[in-house]
Specification:
It is built from nine helices and three strands; from the N terminus they run αααβββαααααα. It is mainly α. α1 packs antiparallel against α2, α1 crosses α5 and α7 packs across α8.
């Protein structure tokens, strides 16, 4: 787990993805890498697991889509629902790119993704951003949008304890700062 990286803000997320999609002077547009990072931010998987995905990995299970994977880093099995919108986004991308269901969606390396992301972040003057920032963005948003349920986020990320998850998304420092702001007894 890379604690040196920070979670993206919604604005940073949008700006990075849009910059990758359109390109800039000296850097061609790269929809493939932008799409991989979008999936990381929406599925909460590590980039190494995103890069191994095939459309066939997502199966229809009753009225939902399900993804069963074994995480590359931890070797842990993970089964979770993939929202219809996310599945359709992936399916459309594969159709547009001529990617067959049994083929890897992103036949690129993690290093290539990191390198391109660094170029974009340097242009935008963002510091401490890596591919892992997209997973932290996922975790932070799940936390905030679900009544600050740290156990829920812990389970989604498959962390060993809520304390690990709190440290992962940087809650301890935020909690300390908020507590200090509330503790004013000046006369």
């Amino acid at each position: 787990m890379n604690l040196g990286t920070v979670a993206l803000t919604a604005e940073q997320y949008k700006e990075i993805v849009n910059t990758m999609r359109v390109g800039f002077s000296g850097c061609r547009p790269n929809r493939r890498i932008a799409t991989a990072l979008i999936l990381e931010a929406n599925l909460g998987l590590r980039i190494s697991d995103i890069l191994k995905l095939r459309l066939d990995d997502i199966v229809k299970d009753g009225d939902r889509y399900r993804l069963d994977i074994t995480e590359q880093k931890t070797g842990k099995k993970r089964t979770f629902t993939v929202l219809d919108e996310v599945y359709n986004y992936i399916k459309i991308y594969c159709l547009e790119k001529g990617i067959k269901p049994h083929e890897r969606i992103f036949p690129i390396t993690e290093r290539a993704v990191q390198r391109h992301l660094k170029i974009v972040c340097d242009l935008l003057e963002y510091k401490q951003i890596s591919t892992h920032s997209f997973r932290k963005f996922f975790a932070t948003n799940i936390y905030v949008n679900n009544d600050y349920d740290i156990v829920l986020v812990q389970r989604l990320l498959q962390h060993s304890t809520p304390a690990v998850t709190q440290k992962y998304i940087g809650l301890q420092q935020k909690a300390i700062e908020n507590a200090l702001k509330k503790h004013k007894f000046l006369m």
